[in-house]
Known about the structure:
Layout: H1 3-20, H2 23-29, E1 44-45, E2 60-66, E3 77-89, H3 101-113, E4 121-133, E5 138-150
Parallel strand pairs: 1-2
Antiparallel strand pairs: 2-3, 3-5, 4-5
Amino acid sequence: xxxxxxxxxxxxxxxxxxxxxxxxxxxxxxxxxxxxxxxxxxxxxxxxxxxxxxxxxxxxxxxxxxxxxxxxxxxxxxxxxxxxxxxxxxxxxxxxxxxxxxxxxxxxxxxxxxxxxxxxxxxxxxxxxxxxxxxxxxxxxxxxxxxxxxxxxxxx
Length: 156
């Protein structure tokens, strides 16, 4: 497997691990979860998961990663992207947090990822955050983060 694909896998797994370490996010996604690890592949996925039916009311977080250009610009720097989608059934939107569940979970994830230095070189920045309807019953927010990758490892 190429270093590029290893980075994609690493970034997805790292983001999912950071998300399940936040007890507020775990409780918001599944208040009945006994172990945060139980949320993996039930509420948190390393791919874009679409709810199967209109009666599926679980909330989801999906994590995708990629490199829009696989070559290094000027043989030195390329950008990496981490895209996180929060998907919530409209019947679960109202919360006790003073915001919708969609906004609450998105905000907590942004607190973890924005300005993180665990992805690429330097800090990762929120590039876009857009809300939309997935279908008649599900709403989602897509947050795209960008960081730089370099060909040269950090100097110690």
